[in-house]
Write a structure and sequence with these properties.
The two termini are about 35 Å apart. Helix 6 links the parallel strand 8 (about 175-180) and strand 9 (about 205). Strands 9-8-7-6-3-2-1-10 form an eight-stranded parallel beta sheet, with helices on one face. It is an alpha/beta fold. The radius of gyration is 19 Å and the shape is globular. The relative contact order is 0.13. Helix content is about 40%, strand content about 10%.
Length: about 325
């Protein structure tokens, strides 16, 4: 059970992504997925207040509401680590002090809990002085509404500034960072964020760990993802070099008798400072391949094969 940075939070090495809850998975199905994940030992659920405002008929907060209803039904609040994020909800845009305070309370109400275990600044808000945001997050910790703070989608320079402000003023320092990182998107994480994570002892919780499904192997031609919910996301990964990574994954998966997704996640879990990649399942059938990554140990040669293949994927995205 890896520890999240310098916190006292130890978690299952696969975080269950809540972005599909209330979007491609309805409440009943989402509860079944959460039950199966928890039943297999999973205890780290990731959400955001904006999930899934982009879906027709949604307004944001749907994922948190589904998680909240599951927490009430299951009675498992004390058994799971709940992470959520602020800055993108249609009613709570940005990271001003008043917005952070109001958004956190709204998230707590939807989740039906008295504390958020890990609270992320979802995207940087350069229109708000960074010190104001850092102090707002610290205030939530002081009030007991948030246990630990974290950042996502921040540049290295802005992340370093956040940490400096917190250190200089005795404020809560982030314990985790959530970057876009997977076998077909290694930059700018590896050159910019990874050294910072190592230096500041930040737990790394990568999102798009399966590249919107591309690293499951189910998209081998453009026709495979035409009309899919994530067509726009998947198309960005679809290159000859990307497909070569999938081929390498396929070979290794066959050798272990596991799914391609399992190997994709196991490679991430083997990277320095990575605590738990985030992967979502819109039904229980998708879950076993994700969970199996927690027990798959790739050989040094297999890890190197994947690293070498992925190094040929164009860095710019």
């Amino acid at each position: 059970m890896p520890r999240i940075g310098t916190s006292d939070l130890t978690v299952f090495p696969l975080a269950l992504g809540g972005n599909v809850f209330g979007w491609t998975a309805d409440e009943e199905t989402s509860h079944r997925v959460l039950d199966a994940y928890a039943g297999a030992g999973g205890d780290f659920v990731d959400s955001a207040d904006v999930y899934s405002a982009w879906a027709p008929g949604n307004s944001g907060g749907e994922s948190e509401r589904v998680i909240g209803s599951w927490l009430r039904a299951s009675g498992k609040r004390d058994d799971v680590v709940i992470a959520t994020k602020v800055s993108q909800h249609p009613e709570y845009k940005g990271l001003s002090a008043s917005t952070v305070a109001a958004a956190a309370r709204a998230s707590l109400e939807r989740l039906g809990t008295d504390r958020i275990d890990l609270y992320y600044a979802h995207f940087d808000d350069e229109s708000t002085p960074l010190e104001e945001t850092v102090r707002a997050f610290d205030q939530l910790v002081r009030e007991g509404l948030v246990r630990y703070t974290a950042i996502s989608n921040y540049s290295r320079a802005r992340a370093e500034e956040w940490i400096r402000i917190a250190s200089d003023n005795g404020l809560a320092k982030p314990v985790a960072i959530q970057p876009h990182y997977n076998l077909v998107t290694r930059e700018p994480y590896e050159s910019e964020i990874a050294p910072l994570a190592a230096a500041e002892h930040l737990g790394v919780v990568p999102y798009f760990a399966l590249a919107a499904g591309f690293l499951t192997g189910k998209y081998r031609t453009k026709e495979d993802f035409a009309g899919a919910d994530r067509e726009g996301q998947v198309s960005g990964y679809f290159t000859d070099a990307g497909l070569a990574v999938v081929d390498a994954l396929d070979t290794i998966a066959d050798a272990h008798g596991v799914a391609i997704a399992t190997v994709s996640l196991a490679w991430l879990q083997a990277q320095p400072d990575v605590v738990a990649p985030i992967a979502s399942a819109r039904n229980t059938e998708q879950l076993p391949a994700l969970l199996a990554s927690a027990e798959l140990e790739l050989t040094p040669e297999e890890l190197q094969t994947l690293t070498d293949a992925s190094a040929k994927v164009p860095a710019a995205r």
